[in-house]
Amino acid sequence: MRPTDKLLRLASGSRLLFGTTRASRIISVSALFFAVCAFGAVGVAPMAPDASDLPVKKIKEELALPALDDQVAALEANDQQFIREATFKSSEPLASFLQRIGVDDDEASQFIKSDNIARSMLQFRADKTVAVKTDDEGELLWLQTTVSDGPDKPVRNITISRDKNGKLTSSDTTANLERRIEMASAYIRTSFYQATDDANIATSIAQQVNTMFETNVDYRRLQKGDYFNIVYESFWQNGERVRTGRVLAGEFSNSGKLYQAAWFEETGGKGGYYTFDGKSLKKAFLKSPIEFTRVSSGFSMRVHPISGQWKQHKGVDFAAATGTPIRASADGVIESVGPSGGYGNLVVIKHWNGYSTAYAHMSRFAAGIHKGMKVSQSDVIGYVGTTGWSTGPHLHYEFRVNNEARDPMSINMTEAAPLATAEMNRFKGFAGDMIHRFNLMHPERMAEVMRLATKRS
Ligand SMILES: [Zn+2]
Predict the structure, then answer these.
(1) How far is the CA of 317 from the centre of ligand 1 (A)?
(2) CA 388 to ligand 1 center in whole angstroms
(3) pTM score of the predicted model
(4) Distance in Å, CA 190 to ligand 1 centroid
């Protein structure tokens, strides 16, 4: 089979998934092309460490030795200079970093703290790669790093250099970034954040994955063998990853069930995550009103006996420390706030379609929460406590349909209205590309696509 035959065959297979119009076929072929290119990176990308963590390779080369006299003369003529590169951790004091990177220069250290431009390398609390050039005494000759005020702000190159007269100067220029699309996979062995750390996935990306599936997955109840695959943007300069961008699409397998979502911006609207059939995940309910953080992941896998179980008393109990924030599980209006018998401090939120949610035993309510107030999904409404009939700090959570309690874990809440037709067609083109990428990460799924394609022809 010629490679082109194979491509066409694959493309016709992919057409089964994406629809049968000519336009979608063209999209499929280009999607495949992307996916094939991306596939080369699959083996590498999940394992690829953050560029800033890569060890600097030292290459040793045998050189013919010039006469000793010449060497001494050369050393005296040219001072030795060193170039080093290291990650400046957001938590690290400047003095310790400079020492670590071999800069022994009080003037430079003072300059970084006082110069308006140079100081920006201290201001934005994110890890950054810093390159320096020093002489053999540790005097700074040159320093270069990139900074950004935030994920959507432009990235700038900050350079400090010592001029001929020995005076330090700084410059600030816009970085010329190249956008790349990367893929990554992570397998859950102990906890979510352990898995993302093992796979060298940046924290900002891990947090987005967390957010995109929190209406499908309770991260405190993951199981060994759960996994996810993601496609995300990253921005590079001079062969170095400067920062990561948005997670464009992802799939999460939880207890054998696969959830898939892609980022999409409706024309003129704010973006959000949608299932591959075009339903907004924002319109669903959170699986856990308790936020899942790096801290909570520490004890995530040994599920507390009362955590997340549907009880005879028609609610779900989430064990958490007193004071842990409780979030509205979906958009709605506060129906009631106040003490309520055995429930202790209780908040009830009214949503759409006769759905409502109740949050009990709170130690206190969020400041300003009152009846009739509009809340958005994930807004903090109160804090975990043990008021009312409760034996220890936990959140008692009820999900009600027409005032009747139902097990939220058993209800598929992605029932929001799908995208309008025109938007849906645009979305399907993008989602098709993403589905194909994910299929390529699963040989067994690809085999199925091939089998269907063969059967058809
Ligand atoms: Zn309960």
Answers:
(1) 5
(2) 11
(3) 0.61
(4) 27
